[in-house]
Write a structure and sequence with these properties.
Elements: E1 3-8, H1 22-28, E2 33-36, H2 44-50, E3 55-58, E4 78-79, E5 81-86, E6 89-94, H3 108-115, E7 123-125, E8 133-137, E9 140-144, E10 160-167, E11 170-179, E12 182-185, H4 193-196
Parallel strand pairs: 1-2, 2-3, 3-4, 6-7, 7-9
Antiparallel strand pairs: 1-10, 5-6, 8-9, 10-11, 11-12
């Protein structure tokens, strides 16, 4: 049976709202682990997520005081770069990932070689952009679940979360839209709600 991971990033709690949408906790019930792509802002949110499953979190610029925010303390659940062995695959977790950047910024290959010197991960989960993404690049499955609270950096509203299902050497990622009733598969071809407001 596959291992299911819950993916979330850029929660911006309590900046976006006092607490995370309850639909997220319901959706993550039963996952093996939760990977947070950073910009949690208040690490107390990790305590709430940890009631559902063990949490691994990337340290984002928001945790380091970006925009005048309070610098968050060190926490064993939070690192700039994680390397996790899940079934037969290596999963990396970080906040920023250079997917579409061009010189003078590092390429994805350069970034990975510098930050995962022991070997290229099979999958990298990230955040930062607030934009959902599932893309195979340089032999890596790159996954960004978007933001559940500030999708595409719009005002506070329902955004997205994700899942990563790993079965042996196979990884499948999906993105889900938060709704009043729970979550539904994200329609990559539709105009998303934040563009229709």
């Amino acid at each position: 049976m596959a291992t299911r991971l819950g993916l979330i990033a850029d929660t911006h709690i309590p900046e976006a709202r006092a607490s995370l949408w309850p639909q997220v906790y319901e959706a993550f019930a039963g996952v093996e682990r939760i990977l947070h792509g950073g910009d949690v802002h208040d690490l107390a949110l990790l305590d709430e997520l940890e009631k559902v499953a063990p949490v691994y979190c990337a340290r984002g610029n928001g945790e380091d005081g970006s925009g005048g925010r309070p610098v968050q303390p060190r926490d064993p659940r939070v690192r700039y770069f994680w390397t996790l062995r899940i079934e037969a695959l290596t999963v990396g977790l970080t906040h920023y990932l250079p997917i579409d950047d061009s010189p003078p910024l590092p390429s994805l290959a350069q970034f990975v070689a510098r930050n995962w010197p022991d070997g290229k991960p099979d999958v990298i989960v990230s955040g930062d952009s607030h934009t959902e993404l599932i893309r195979e690049q340089d032999g890596i499955l790159c996954v960004n679940p978007g933001s559940p609270t500030y999708p595409h950096n719009y005002d506070t509203q329902y955004g997205t979360i994700g899942f990563l299902d790993i079965d042996g050497h196979r990884a499948d990622a999906s993105v889900w839209l938060i709704t009043d009733d729970g979550i539904e598969p994200f329609d990559w071809n539709a105009i998303p709600p934040w563009r229709r407001r």
